[in-house]
Amino acid sequence: MQTAPMHSVGTSLNACIKCNICTSYCPVSEVTDSFPGPKYAAPQSERFRDFGHPHYEDAYGPISRPLAVGQMPDASVDYCSGCRVCNEVCPTGVRIAEINARARARIVAAHGLSLRNRLLGRNELLGRVGSIAPAIANFILHNPVSRKLAAALFGVAEKAPLPRWHHETLNRWLARTRAQRLRSERKVVYFHGCATQYYEPYVGMAAILVLEHLGYEVVVPPQNCCGLPMLSNGEFGAAEDHHRRNVDRLAEYVDAGYPVIGTSTSCTLTLKEEAPELLDLERDPGTRALKLATWDIFEWLRERLDQGQLPSDLRPVNQTDQPFILPYHAPCQLRAHRIGKPALDLLAQIPGLDLRESHARCCGIAGTYGYKTEKYQIAMDVGAELFDYVAAQADESDLSSNGSVSLTACDSETCRWQLEHGTGLPSRHPIELLAAAYGLYDLQARRPAAGN
Amino acid sequence: MKRMQTEILVIGGGATGTGVAWDAALRGFRTILVEKRDLTHGTTGRYHGLLHSGARYVLKDADSAVECISENRILRRTHTHCIEDTSGFFVATPEDEDDYPDRFVAACRRLNIPCTEIPAQAALRREPLLNPRISRVFELPDAAADSFLATHATAQAARQAGAKLLPYHELTRLHLSGGDGNRTVTGATVLDTVSGEDLRIDADLVINAAGAWSGQVAALAGVEVKMILGKGVMLATNARLTNTVINRCKMPGDGDILVPIHTVSVIGTTDERVAAPEDLPIEQWEIDLMLTEGDKLVPGLSSSRILRAWAGVRPLYQETQQSGEPTHDSGDSQPQELPEQASPLDSRDATRALALLNHQQRDGVRGLITITGGKWTTFRLMAESAVDAACEQLGVSRPCRTAETAVPGVEQGHYWLGHRLNEVEDEELQSELICECELVTRSMLEGAAQRNPTVTLDDLRRDVRLGMGPCQGGFCTYRAVGILHELRAGDSSPVAAEWNVAHMQSPAHHHRDRSETEVHAAGAELASDPAPDDDSPQRSAAVDPLSAVSQPNLLLRDFLQERWKGVAPILWGQQLRQERLDELIYLSILNADHLPVDDRESPLSSFYRSDSSLSGSGL
Description:
By secondary structure, chain A is of the alpha/beta class. Helices cover 48% and strands 8% of the residues of chain A.
């Protein structure tokens, strides 16, 4: 018999020493009474929920109860945003956010899922449908009347920062530019995620241009949603179907030893950890192989940097001589990778960039959390810490130099949208900055630079 | 010396004694019960919490099995809210005899104990942590019982029927009249251990329901009752491993029961003959054995977090030839108590059936009845037998009513695990929590302290599960001490409101209740109480701010010591990490081992310290 791994979700309940550090850091319980706090919701309440707990593994994997059995005595756990700040600060390794996610899944199994949460989990489907006719879709979604209706009928917060469909999906751009793509012996797989495919294909373009600049051929195989929005909304069955499909679709590349590189920190976290853990798939060979092959793009680029393989032709991204002040926020989902903040290491290579690292806990949006009417204000209140930080950088710059803050940077898409919503400043993925510094990308227009 | 008079005096405030007081009072006897500590402080409060279906004993002890299934059915009606209807599995593991299951089924059928075989795969779906190598599974009506709550509920019912219950009153003397061969017990002297005052109680009849202490009580009347004291060690896990009671389908042995009780699973037990009822060392081999055997039921149990270990003593009794012709030569009784000598039985083999000793017929001593043996499950039947015998001696005929009388609180239905979490959630009481692990709110604590005699924090633990969770008192002890001190300093608690335990474990009830009492005058409660007369003298002493037991430092020290006793034997892994944090809180921050009450003693201080083997062993 093998002992349970340190991060097995159910087992980790036993590691709680009640110290309250998670409670004192939780950004959600700080701003609302609706969420009673991570210690209360996870290791404490879990002992009162009607389940036995997995605490060992046998040859077939971790043992746990079927999710739908039993009666759920509490509902406030649904107010956990899943930001994982608690996991980050826990001194004993309790998988607090995951315990909460599983509890939410049991609520869903017992009481069903609202149409809104089902839709929010279907990010990929929405993306695909909208991109049939992006202009019409944007008009339908982004007018005051339909936002009021969506709020009233479905509970989608009226002011929450919904994305816009791009006129061209990443796949169509790839097809159109097939002839210009680099062919090489050295290959990487790019996992774009749904937001890049349908809303922000330019993030994918920037990533592909940078990877090609390093001399790698970028393979973009058919892929689907990583399943995270479904995991976040407690729809574990559908999430598992999506995850297993990705495992199958990427298997031949993973087996061939290609790294799977993603620009969406939450998608890569799901492939690396969330799906294996929450769905008890840690012993599934395909899941395990994909988990080990998956990289956050900056995690992978930092390896290249460390090995002296990074091209050094980086130029300042701003045209003037003034310092370019860039507040950078490492999103919670990236911090959950436990890889440090690799984007900072890379951005630091760009000349003339005055990087300001935010230590705010969370932007508040937490995937689909801030899109729900009942949670919108909580998300904004949580994000205030970050918005204030960004504002302070601008103020300071006004006093001390001629520089100004014109952009923020953040690795995660929904966090960027929330940052833009909360600060009024445009936000960029760090890969866009790196691509711009290589002269491959137009940072303002968000498209490949002329000639690329 | 204060003096009281009664018809029936009950010695012992465990399940049996409290049941006897309830039964006797319902039959119209004036009844007083004395208990040397808190109710359930003895074996009742130290058992694993199993409401037996009787199946465990079908092949070994058919009398006990029949008693168990009959009482199982009755207690589900009379003590509904004290029972969680978990159901029970008897599972055959690869190590168990092949033919036992078939004999087991036949015996269950013969004794009319409902037993259904279910496919092992179905059982594993319900209890995925069970050993996947089990071959056969039988489902029986076992259940989990809260012996603290059940006893307090019985006590309240007894009190409502007119009985007087005196915890913290220790029997020091039995009074006898008449000469040899014609002796009669006429009453007792008891010591109020809180105030230090003696109390003389004259009684027509004394019922000895002192469980493991029965031999000592009988000895005070010059009667020899040779108890077979079987110590059992149990371990509690941090969270439940199963939601069904799990028994091995084999002849009863060590470590073959796993009971889900409240938030934990309890694995038990050993069965070691001991010389004295407070001789409760927890040996390393016993812990190891529980873990090894536990792994056979739920593989990996041994690597799960263990919260604490404790031991209880079974009060077993088996009449032997020599006790038919009793000798009163107390000089040689001591060596005979030792397990190695003169013991016809191993305690594992002793019957679990109840034993009623009518000392008038047995020993020629009138006015004394001993009721012992049995199981927690059969406490009501034991009480019925004892009071039947009492009626006979007193020459009256009054039928027993306990089987048809529900105790206060049954309308709440069976207990379910999510109960507290659900109520805290509904009433938004999260910020009111004092014991966070077991979800004890401030008003629950105050309610228990005001409505149930409270001398130590350990009494509150038994009432509301204070300090019974993962941190073992780390975060609630100092909070609870402060609240208790505030209550006593204010002395605002109306004495007559005590002993109302129906909703003692309900966060919502206490919350609403407190809101109401803040509006109404305290007098409303007074009027509804049936027996507020010359009430518990220990109560006034307990609230006297000058009394030693009211010293908050003493409360703190005693409770920490009590919790430490149970943690010390299992101090490894995650619980060790917890204790390190608790140590930092109490010893490093609060300097709790240098309190200004170091020289003071509560009635329990010595008991908490008595197990000196623990603090020294293995360190």
